[in-house]
Amino acid sequence: MTKSHQKLAHSGINNSDKKPYIALVEQIDLTIRARYPLLYIIAVEEEPTEEVLRQVATYSQPQRRLLFWDIVRGWDDNNSDKGSVMGALLRIAKADEQESALFVLRDLHPFIKNPTTEKSAPIVRELRNLTRELKRSRKTLILTSHTLDLPEELLQEVTVIDFPLPNPPEIDYLIKQLVVPEKLQVSGLAREQLVKACQGLSRTRI
User: Fold this and answer.
1) Judgement on whether residues 190 and 152 belong to the same structural domain of the protein
2) Model pLDDT for residues 63-117, shown as the tens digit of each residue
3) Are residues 59 and 115 in the same domain?
4) Do 97 and 73 lie in a common domain?
5) Contact (CB, 8 A) for 152 and 3
6) Which residues have a Cβ under 8 Å from the Cβ of 103 and sit 6 or more positions away?
7) Which domain holds residue 50?
8) What is the pLDDT of residue 186?
9) Which residues are registered as beta bridge partners of 42?
10) Cis-peptide into 62, omega within 30 deg
């Protein structure tokens, strides 16, 4: 079992909301404030997940710095550490511990699932080192992936968060936003059936 496994409650969306996903934002913000240093977000879609993280970054005052990294393009602010997981982790370790910051690493699971290999072992070890150090700082490390793939060495270190698929209010909202009214004129029971038919689909498939 992991240290903590959270299923995020869904806030729903309506046209009057100033910020969509506000309940998700509040839950992740609370987890970060509680000084959980290493989060692992399971999500089939990157864009909604990263939009929520952007809102989390601006939710607190002062705002948190937010940086994204992936193996191909490196860090989004300067394209450094392309192809280097250890380089990305080193930047996090060296960052000012008094600066409130969220470091998001995309798709790290292939590099940590087998900690006995020569390439993976140092990465898993450094993640454990960072987890201990980040508890004394205002920095949070967030891993995002479509699947949960963790080695035993990290099970007690990671807080796992399931990012939900859209619920009926959000599905209805997406239909209104994506479909030209003249092309889809449904209401009442027909609209309810359409929303129900879309349940279980990702936002990109609706």
Assistant:
1) no
2) 999 999 999 999 999 999 999 999 999 999 999 999 999 999 999 999 999 989 9
3) yes
4) yes
5) no
6) 67, 69, 91, 92, 95, 139, 140, 141, 142
7) 4-162
8) 67
9) 145, 162
10) yes
